[in-house]
Amino acid sequence: MPVPLPSRKPPFAFHVMAKPTGALCNLRCAYCFYLEKEGLYPGKNAPAMSDAVQEAYVRDYIAAQDAPEVTFAWQGGEPTAAGLDFFRRAVALQREHAGGRTIHNTFQTNGILVDDEWAAFLKEHDFLVGLSLDGPKEVHDAYRLDARGKGTHDRVMRALECLKRHEVEFNTLTCVHHESAARPLEVYRFLRRHGSGHMQFIPIVERIPDAPDPDGLTLARPGGASTGQVAAWCPTPEEYGHFLTTIYDEWVREDVGRVYVQLFEVTLEAWMGMLPSLCLFREHCGFAMALERNGDLYACDHYVYPEYRLGNILETNVRELAASEAQTRFGRDKADTLPGYCRECPVHFVCRGECPKHRFATAPTGEPGLNYLCAGYRRFFTHVAPTMRFMAGELRAQRPPANVMEWVRRQEREAPPAGGPNDPCPCGSGRKYKKCCGVRK
What we know:
Layout: E1 15-18, H1 51-64, E2 69-74, H2 84-97, E3 102-109, H3 116-124, E4 128-132, H4 137-140, H5 153-165, E5 170-176, H6 178-181, H7 184-193, E6 198-203, E7 207-208, E8 229-230, H8 237-254, E9 260-261, H9 262-271, E10 288-291, E11 296-298, E12 309-312, H10 318-322, H11 325-336, H12 340-343, H13 348-351, E13 361-362, E14 368-370, H14 374-396, H15 404-414
Parallel strand pairs: 1-2, 1-10, 2-3, 3-4, 4-5, 5-6, 6-9
Antiparallel strand pairs: 7-8, 10-11, 11-12, 13-14
């Protein structure tokens, strides 16, 4: 007999990623997992969220939050395709319904439509902009193409300069695919050189299904019953682990406190015993939903499929949907379905099995549900352990974690390998000296 889940009070706060144009986008990125979702809504909606849905969302989302600050996240598809007037109205509605709360806005864009008018608006209203940029031209243009199949790098760089010119706060979102995974330092140094002080590195993991999807989708759905081959553009777990550790080795020696890499910051949170700020690495999920342009609310941005539709905000209050039994169960399943192999892993406390969407591999124990990227994450989290412990200690002592840069250099100077280049590197990376710090001599 199934054991009933305990009732959950409505959450004090939750996050919604709103998609004012749904999956509609002016690009045709080869690896995009969302573009095909437009097929779920063929001809049913206007190109952008209606005034009724927009007002219901802004009003009820603010009212649902038992917190003094509320953050709206606008994404797509491509949100600039909704037009500036849509966001002017959104800001006006936020002011009308704020009720004394502080309102923040984040905005993820491919940059193609960003011009001086857009940048001036984003600056005036303190939007935090995420700009999708995969690195140097040849890396970015490998997959980020427009509708004519042309590369978009030059246009994105113009948008970047426009944001900088208007002093808009921005970060970069970089998709890690097969091409970029092979050039970690080139990607990292390019972003740093062009002024990105905050970086997100998002691994691209998709599968091509073995059989046609009933909804006509071309990418495999999440879930244990779904099968298919990993798409050619995806990095292998080993490539992803190498990408992360290579960038980390440069960051921890040169850029701590100057460049903020989302994954590195979240990893440090785990070493501090804090609740990770990124849902991927929390024990439970379910507090980050996706809103389609017609008002349909889904369990997660990666689970926009009919079976994960929670309801429509024009029919049911968004807080009620966020606190529903279906969403509670979805969030608990992340921990409940984790293989025993993961639970016994020494880096489980930071990894938590990452995103359930990626759990389609088989563990060495034969258990299903292992994260495809497990080997890469295990390598990375093991690699960073010594320096993470040091930075956590500095923070607890109320000293800057940037002290780790001198600590690493001192370790290298004071503890050269006694047995030669094949000895473990004294920095604690776990690699041979000749493959790690010895390369920098």
